[in-house]
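Ticket #4471: structure export looks truncated?
Reporter: QA, pipeline team
Priority: medium

Steps to reproduce: submit the single chain below to the structure queue and open the exported record.
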Amino acid sequence: MIELANTIVVIPARLASTRLPGKPLADINGQPMIVHVWRRALAANVGQVLVAAAENEIAEVIRRQGGDAMATDPGLPSGSDRIAQALALRDPARKFKYVVNVQGDLPTIDPLAIQRCLAGLANDQVDISTIAAPISSAAERDNANVVKAIAPLSETREVAFARDFVRDLGPDHEPPFWHHIGVYAYRRDVLERFVALPVSERERHRRLEQMRALDNGMKIAVVRVDSVPLGVDAPEDLEQARKMLKPDK
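Actual output as written to the record:
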């Protein structure tokens, strides 16, 4: 059973970023971005929250706020690997059975979306849960930077198994279309198996880590949410985040 005591949210973060170097520490209205994400993970109230940082500077920022953070191997290839290492170091007794991966560049993530992602694991047949929101424009649909979840969701069906994840929608795909959001909930043993697997061919070709799970027979549930959080990847995204999170006077 999923409970507060056996669930942990882990936020992987690293300073290296091609388009926005040092982005976890980028200032958003007086607080580093990673602090905004950490606070929203706390507000979800699904379990303990841990920041898994590639550099100790990030961990120290969270600790100064009274949060839990640890430095991990900066050479790890992905956020999933960082989460798995942090979990192994922090919880060798295996208290935590469920793990939620919230990316450190989502300062506007809705705490309810984190809750809904975790709820996808309530089905015993599900290995990994993730979230997606309706695509509302042709520009969003045609943008190759927007990953689309192929799953039979609808206004009346809130959870469905993923059939595929693509960047470009071919003629075989029909609406409604779903904007995949990179938040994942794992059963702990599934996460450990996932990071031990080699990169799959479709993962390498599409540059989508979740293809490794599908290619190895893991079942991914996609849970419908109402909106897409802002992902901060470039300076213009950072400016938008500052406007969106500006305190009301």
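Status: closed, not a bug. The export was complete when the record was re-opened. Leaving a note from the reviewer for reference: The domain at 4-232 is CATH 3.90.550.10 (Spore Coat Polysaccharide Biosynthesis Protein SpsA; Chain A).
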